[in-house]
């Protein structure tokens, strides 16, 4: 490829993956989880666009709440050149694409942007790269390239695209005749048998200059707000934080509806790489290794006379007897039991939990922070017990509480504790008491993770009873 056709990979990491509840939640969505391999889906997606010389360093657009988790996941696989843009709130993919387009044009007016979700599974990476290279030929001619997947079943959970005639200059590229929303079963069967319809993968290769022109023509309000959010963005450590007020004015709409379905530039490539968007537990069952009875079994599970099921425990033991075609997923605070045929409806269950004010609809037991994580072990009247893990070099904010005292007991590692004017070094099996109102900080000066038990006591134990005096992560 020529220098003019360099590609900027844009990874969209704003989804919540509610159909994979209780493992995937808003606070820690599916792209941050190792669902299909020992790497997280985000890590797999980044790795996919690293090797070829025509790819620029990837750009990740993510919710600001996930910024430190994403940065740590990239660091752990040796990636230091990726850039991270923070959305103050999710506004679907069109505003994110508009911001990505501005970044691309700023560095190269001839740039192509490869817009793709960070939560898909693609097994054959080389075929994926070959499809992108083929698409670049059309994109450099001003076409908006979609990658369509040949249906292997009449799935009702995907959008479909009807292929038109082959492109005059590139026979492997077809015109787009129609976009179709998720069909019913009978319609999906008709689409599959016709061989004219492809699944919409949600992956696009777009020439930035022409995309700007189409935003001006079709969605000028989104473009104006996105431009303002980008122009007024501020650097926050290694992140670029979009302006919240301007970005909130962007209409929440997908790039499909805003641009791709309305432009005359759309073309589609029938891609041959193995792909799934892992949009349900049954989709994950499809791609996972199975034992003799067709079961996927992960974690502490005992199964007797169980067939064609997905059983996964990251909490209590699962014991299953005499069932088939079911999904059972257990975490520390919730258990999902569903028919594989109904797993698309898990999203509705989550909405019901959210409406009832259940925190487990969106939050996880383990709460991640830039320095590590904590999780509640037990709580009672006027007390709470937590496990705290601080990464090497991690440092909590200098803070105080108005309503609680704390007692820290080091389980392993080394802790450097600030308590008012004191500096205290603690090792395994040593402890310190932090009285109500004292100014304190916890640091890990060692090379291994620090694990400690925190016992809180007082009339109010909420996380909002924190007055931050100083914070190296610049949190409010």
Automatic annotation (TrEMBL):
Q: Where is the Mannose-6-phosphate isomerase type II C-terminal domain?
A: 357-471
Annotated MannoseP isomerase/GMP-like beta-helix domain residues:
300-353
Name the keywords, alphabetized: GTP-binding, Isomerase, Nucleotide-binding, Nucleotidyltransferase, Transferase
GO annotation terms (biological process): GDP-mannose biosynthetic process; polysaccharide biosynthetic process
UniProt entry tagged with the keyword Secreted: no
Q: Does the keyword Protein biosynthesis apply?
A: no
Q: Which InterPro entries match?
A: GMPP_N, Man1P_GuaTrfase/Man6P_Isoase, Man6P_isomerase-2_C, ManC/GMP-like_b-helix, Mannose-6P_isomerase_type2, NTP_transferase_dom, Nucleotide-diphossugar_trans, RmlC-like_jellyroll
Report which reactions are catalysed by this protein: alpha-D-mannose 1-phosphate + GTP + H(+) = GDP-alpha-D-mannose + diphosphate
The Nucleotidyl transferase domain, residue ranges: 9-291
In alphabetical order, the GO MF annotations are: GTP binding; isomerase activity; mannose-1-phosphate guanylyltransferase (GTP) activity
Per UniProt, what is one Pfam family of this protein? ManC_GMP_beta-helix
Give the EC number.
Answer: 2.7.7.13
Which enzyme class? transferase
Similarity annotation: Belongs to the mannose-6-phosphate isomerase type 2 family.
Which protein, by its recorded name, is this? mannose-1-phosphate guanylyltransferase
């Amino acid at each position: 490829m020529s220098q003019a056709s360099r590609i900027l990979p844009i990874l969209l990491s704003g989804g919540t993956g509610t159909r994979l509840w209780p493992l995937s939640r808003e606070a820690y969505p599916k792209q941050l989880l190792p669902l299909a391999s020992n790497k997280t889906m985000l890590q797999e997606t980044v790795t996919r666009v690293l090797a070829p010389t025509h790819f620029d360093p990837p750009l990740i657009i993510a919710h600001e709440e996930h910024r430190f988790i994403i940065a740590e996941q990239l660091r752990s696989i040796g990636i230091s050149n990726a850039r991270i843009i923070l959305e103050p709130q999710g506004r679907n993919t069109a505003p994110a694409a508009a911001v990505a387009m501005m970044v691309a044009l700023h560095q190269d007016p001839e740039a192509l942007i490869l817009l793709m979700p960070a939560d898909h599974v693609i097994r054959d990476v080389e075929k994926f790269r070959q499809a992108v290279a083929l698409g670049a030929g059309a994109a450099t001619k001003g076409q908006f390239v979609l990658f369509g997947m040949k249906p292997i079943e009449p799935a009702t959970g995907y959008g479909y695209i009807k292929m038109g005639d082959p492109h005059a200059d590139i026979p492997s590229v077809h015109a787009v005749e129609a976009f179709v929303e998720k069909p019913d079963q009978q319609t999906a069967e008709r689409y599959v048998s016709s061989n004219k319809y492809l699944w919409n993968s949600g992956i696009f290769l777009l020439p930035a200059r022409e995309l700007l022109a189409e935003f001006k023509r079709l969605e000028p309000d989104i473009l104006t707000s996105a431009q303002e959010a980008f122009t007024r963005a501020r650097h926050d450590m290694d992140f670029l934080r979009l302006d919240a007020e301007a970005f909130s004015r962007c209409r929440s709409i997908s790039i499909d509806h805003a641009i791709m379905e309305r432009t005359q530039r759309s073309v589609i490539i029938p891609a041959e790489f193995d792909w799934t968007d892992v949009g349900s537990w049954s989709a994950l069952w499809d791609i996972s290794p199975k034992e003799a009875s067709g079961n996927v079994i992960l974690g502490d599970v005992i199964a007797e006379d169980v067939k064609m099921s997905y059983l996964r425990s990251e909490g209590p033991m699962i014991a299953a007897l005499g069932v088939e075609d079911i999904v059972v997923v257990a975490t520390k605070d919730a258990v999902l039991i569903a028919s594989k045929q109904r797993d698309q409806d898990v999203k509705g269950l989550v909405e019901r939990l959210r409406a009832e004010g259940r925190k487990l609809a969106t939050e996880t037991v383990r709460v991640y922070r830039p320095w590590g994580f904590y999780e509640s072990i037990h709580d009672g009247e006027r007390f709470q017990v937590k496990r705290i893990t601080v990464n090497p070099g991690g440092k909590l904010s200098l803070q105080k509480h108005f309503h609680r005292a704390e007692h820290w007991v080091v389980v392993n590692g080394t802790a450097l504790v600030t308590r008012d004017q004191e500096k205290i070094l603690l090792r395994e099996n040593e402890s310190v008491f932090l009285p109500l109102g004292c100014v304190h900080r916890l640091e890990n000066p060692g090379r291994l993770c620090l694990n400690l038990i925190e016992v809180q006591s007082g009339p109010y134990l909420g996380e909002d009873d924190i007055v931050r005096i100083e914070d190296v992560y610049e949190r409010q």
